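Hi R.,

Here's the chain you asked about this morning:
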Amino acid sequence: MKRLFIETSKGQLHARAHHGDAASVTLPPLVMLHAAPGSALMLSNLQVRFHQRSLAVDLPGMGDSDPLPIRSGNAEPTISDFTDMVEEALRNAFDEPVDVYGTLSGVRVALELANRQPVSVRRVVLDGIGMPKPEQLDELLAEYAPPFTPDINGNHLMNTFQLCRDQYLFYPWYARDAEHRRPTGLPSADALHLKVMESLKSAAAFRPLIRAAFRYDCAAALAALKQPALITADGSAVRADLPVLEFPPAEPLTCPPDLLDKRAARIAAFLGG
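And the predicted structure, written out as tokens:
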């Protein structure tokens, strides 16, 4: 794995490149876009399982990437704003078509990229779309991504840890009861530690990105999609999204999240590698 920074007119985006192998050299590179909070580091265990060349990008303000410029009047950024910076970085990094993988928040940027670039984006993998119901939206906008202002007593450190931990156990993470329990369980202590550390680096961008993601019209973006798309889900908490994806060229797949080898193999088969 090689780390690099890609220049854009709005700042640098940090990325993790995996060279792949000679057998897949004819395939386009795979661009990977992570969920929030966190960074592209959260995708490394999946990324290294692909034979295809890949570039996992820290979204603007996340991980080691520069944040978006402040908008006029302090207006909240949209998914279009996050995509602008990613799109420019990819133009600077590649002179060939790409495949795009996105998970959760990254799904929105992947969809926006694909619809903007129907020729430059060949195939799309959408991992856990998680479209909120209209009646949930106001609550999610208010509660899902609290501002983690640094606290002299370190309370923001514990709050960040609890959010990262409870994202694995409940959806939404703050609804800590049996009705909202997820079936996936906790990752290893080391994996959770990495997520917490990357989330602390991304604290300022977490709330704007999540709010932009919840507001993004995934249904309209899916309806406009021209490329073949593989839709994956990791459990019953998101499997309810799949019935809305009845139109071609979408292809649904459910796969246990702990079976990374199986998931990577199915995605690779879809991408041709």
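Residues 2-271 form a domain with the Rossmann fold fold (CATH 3.40.50.1820).

Let me know if you need anything else.
M.
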